[in-house]
Here is the input.
Amino acid sequence: MGSLSDKVSGTANEVAGKVKQAAGKATGNRQMEAEGKGQEVKGKTQKAAGKAKDAVKGVVDRM
Here is the structure.
């Protein structure tokens, strides 16, 4: 995946995870709440990977 697609996917997963957490909390469904937290963390990791790819590309471009 490219850096932009990592960042977009990461944001989507982060938002979906927050929604899932809220739904789980509202319904008392702890499993859904936990899955939402996991999806949010996955999204944050994807976004970080996209930012790291941008940083590496910037260093390489300056060489």
Q: What stands out?
A: The longest helix spans residues 30-62. The chain has two helices and no strands. Residues 24 and 30 are 6 Å apart (CA to CA). The chain has a mean pLDDT of 94.
